[in-house]
Specification:
Belongs to the UppP family. With 272 residues, the chain is mainly α. It has one domain. The protein contains 14 helices and no strands. The model has no long low-confidence stretch (mean pLDDT 88).
């Protein structure tokens, strides 16, 4: 096999890993670090991660398109007419904004630390996966009683802080926000929807902030085909992984992810 073909295969694998692990609570960034170490790849900067993360974002937008359209429609209606029937959706949109602030602010302030930690902290990933497993185990049986209309500013900010914690390599963003939401008493469906709707502005913001870096990244030219393959793989894998995870959440089987995080985290700490 030629070197070029093997590079495409490696990036295909990275795209699949990103796509599968982004929606489920096992840390996509952490798994990219682990796989890069195992494959002997060294991808400088965060451009590749942001690029394939954008593919996952497109999958999330498709899966939650009806929720997004409804929220946007009612938010615009309430903003223009103060229609009382649209107020709850407007409030939910504001809670998404509030929940986005902590991660956005801390992400900008600690960008350099995050980048250096992601690229040099395989052991950190192992430890944080173990912690993620514990957090998921603690809330695995919670059902919650609070729906979308019961969210408060305090709830939104606390879940936003949980999302900010996921800036640490190995801490799952979906896992952190779902754990935070369910610990506050949100029911599983609301916790899931709020978690992934929070993901949208954070991912978009990351893409915008890194747009110039992605465009000027020399790897984007020299590895255009492998990057494109990774992007497509990430999109397809994210779509099906998210659909699967929705079913897992509704059946209350988060404990399986705890066990997975413990096994992988322990292996990383001991052998990488």
């Amino acid at each position: 096999m030629t070197d070029g073909f093997m590079i495409i295969v490696k990036y295909l694998f990275l795209g699949l890993i990103q796509g599968v692990t982004e929606p489920i609570p096992i840390s996509s960034s952490g798994h990219l670090v682990i796989v890069e170490a195992l494959l002997g790849l060294r991808i400088e900067g965060l451009s590749f991660e942001v690029f394939v993360n954008f593919a996952s974002l497109i999958a999330v937008l498709i899966v939650f398109r009806e929720d997004i359209a409804r929220i946007v429609r009612h938010t615009v209606r309430y903003s223009l007419t103060r229609d009382k029937e649209s107020r709850s959706e407007f409030s939910f949109a504001m809670y998404i904004v509030i929940g986005t602030i902590p991660a956005a602010v801390l992400g900008i302030l600690f960008e350099d630390w995050i980048e250096s930690s992601v690229k040099g902290g395989v052991k950190i990933v192992g430890v944080t996966l173990l912690i993620t497993g514990v957090a998921l185990w603690l809330i695995r049986k919670l059902r919650g009683h609070k729906g979308e209309k019961h969210l408060t500013v305090k709830d939104a900010f606390i879940v936003g802080l949980a999302q900010a914690v996921a800036l640490i390599p190995g801490v799952s963003r979906s896992g952190a926000t779902i754990v935070g939401a369910m610990a506050l008493g949100l029911d599983r469906d609301t916790a899931l929807r709020y978690s992934f709707l929070l993901y949208i502005p954070v991912s978009l913001g990351g893409m915008v902030l890194k747009a110039s870096d992605i465009v000027t990244d020399p790897l984007m030219a020299t590895l255009a085909i492998p990057y494109a393959v990774a992007f497509i793989a990430s999109f397809i894998a994210s779509y099906f992984a998210l659909k699967w995870f929705i079913d897992i959440m509704r059946s209350g089987k988060l404990g399986y992810f705890s066990i997975y995080c413990w096994v992988v985290g322990l292996l990383v700490v001991l052998f990488l």
